[in-house]
Amino acid sequence: MEQPASVNADPVQRSDSTGRCTQWRNWSGFWLLGLCNNFAYVVMLSAAHDILKKQETANTTASTSATLAMDFQGGNSSNSSHYDCNPVSTAAVLLADILPTLVIKLSAPFVIHKLPYGFRVLFCAIMAATSFLLVSFSSAVWMSILGVIFASISAGLGELSFLSLTVYFSRDVLGGWGSGTGGAGVAGALLYSGLTQIGLSPQITLLIMLVVPFAMLFSYFFLLVLPPSLPQWKSRDPEYTAVGSEDRQRLMDDSEEEEQEKSTPEERTTGPLTLTEKLHVIKGLLRFVLPLGLVYFAEYFINQGLMELLYFPKSSLSHAEQYRWYQTLYQVGVLVSRSSLCCFKCRKLWTLSLLQVLNAVLLLLAVSYQFLPNAWVVFPIIFYEGLLGGAAYVNTFYFISKETEDRQREFAMAAASVGDSLGIALAGLAAFPVHRHFCSL
Asked: Would you say residue 20 has pLDDT above 80?
């Protein structure tokens, strides 16, 4: 008598099916974590700006609100300058948002291993929810600023923690994380803009967005298949071996297994990293961090120092509309390239950096000499800028994960996350004199 198919099912096939399900859950979980981690960061400044405007004047217009919503700031505050500048460089807002993140990324990698991942995720979710509540019920400037700072703390600690967390999973989850962070820029801007556009107040919109921190908790605690080696609620044993090696080994493909087998006994040394070893790891990371920082310096120099000045008065689009389209195309470019790791990888990180610098030089000359005919020529350049930035981010962390020894990988992923924030902060500082120069003409 023929047995039911389920009885005769090949155990290997069942195992493969379970493995694919686990892999899909983990990829989706990291995608959602990336989206939630950066979402508050994207939304907070636009909401804070709207509320600050409301506090400053009762005559805030809907067009100003919509402009602010697209990437933290926008609009056109006319003055006597030919460039139709805002009174204060948009870099000022960028610095207020990035500096808390930069401080965390510079210091936390040396001590964060003492805090188990479960507590880290809870803290990030609480900080994000607090930022939404503070800005929503803000009655003074300091409350709005504090809300932005809390969002920055949540995003900074979350990024270095979730990048470190990827070492406990198969390497493909980096693609999910990168795609999710890219999606946050588009989703955050469009959702906030859409809800306020249909008539909801910024306060109600932010209260609705409290669902995001809960989605982060759901993704981590229920969607991810957490390996047994993960230090969830207590610090790992001081005599731990290479991070998650058994769990990770089980998920690696054949080629990665061969690479693992070739590792030397020295690379599998047990015990936590000493301060000297951590400094040695950081020295080795410079070949990744420097090109990543340069990409983001050039990228945000364009976004905060030049983009507002790329204004074409004879265009059918207003200054606010041109700026919004620049920001939208930039975010779409970032989303596309951060989602490309599954089909395209680039080890030549310095090439991406130099191409981004060329972008910045081209647009600086365009602002200075005004040789570009209209905004439609700028649109593909801005989209290309987003592609380069997103590609540099995901490829940097992919190759750090691939080329770093098992024992050093968790620290390396956290420490390298400072590259983009450092580049952004320096770009904000450099954008001030550039903005002042052109607006004084």
From this structure: yes
**Closest by alpha carbon to 242, among 263, 220, 262?**
263
pTM beyond cutoff 0.90: no
Backbone angles phi, psi at 77, to 5 degrees: -90, 100
Quick one: three-class SS letters along the chain? CCCCHHHHCCHHHHHHHHHHHHHHHHHHHHHHHHHHHHHHHHHHHHHHHHHHHHHHCCCCCHHHHHHHHHHCCCCCCCCCCCCCCCCCCCHHHHHHHHHHHHHHHHHHHHCHHHCCHHHHHHHHHHHHHHHHHHHHCCCCHHHHHHHHHHHHHHHHHHHHHHHHHHHHCCCCHHHHHHHHHHHHHHHHHHHHHHHHHCCCCHHHHHHHCCHHHHHHHHHHHHHCCCCCCCCCCCCCCCCCCCCCHHHHHHHCCHHHHHHHHCCCHHHHCCCCCCHHHHHHHHHHHHHHHHHHHHHHHHHHHHHHHHHHHCCCCCCCCCHHHHHHHHHHHHHHHHHHHHCCCCCCCCCCHHHHHHHHHHHHHHHHHHHHHCCCCCHHHHHHHHHHHHHHHHHHHHHHHHHHHHHCCHHHHHHHHHHHCHHHHHHHHHHHHHHHHHHHHHHCC
Which of 10-24, 187-201, 242-256 has the highest mean predicted lDDT (pLDDT)? 187-201
Q: Is the pLDDT reported for residue 168 higher than 80?
A: yes
**Beta carbons within 8 Å of 311's beta carbon, 6+ residues apart:** 76, 83, 84, 319, 322
Give the whole-angstrom CA distance, residue 33 versus residue 226.
14
Q: How far is CA 100 from the centre of its chain?
A: 15
> What mean pLDDT value characterizes the chain?
79
Kindly state the tokens that stand for 258. 């061969």
Rounded CA separation 338/386 (Å):
9
Nearest-angstrom CA–CA distance, 72 and 94: 8
Q: Which two tokens stand for residue 400?
A: 């750090």
For residue 415, pLDDT over 60 is answered with: yes
Q: How far apart, in whole angstroms, are the C-alpha atoms of residue 92 and residue 112?
A: 29
How many Cα atoms sit within 13 Å of 163 on the Cβ side? 29
Q: φ and ψ at 230, to 5 degrees?
A: -70, 130
**418 closest CA partner among 281, 224, 306:** 281
* Spatial contact of 400 and 288, defined as CB atoms under 8 Å apart: yes
What domains are there in the chain, each with its CATH number? 21-254+266-439 (1.20.1250.20)
Locate 387 and state its tokens.
């592609």
- Per the CB < 8 A criterion, the answer to whether 170 and 43 are in contact is no
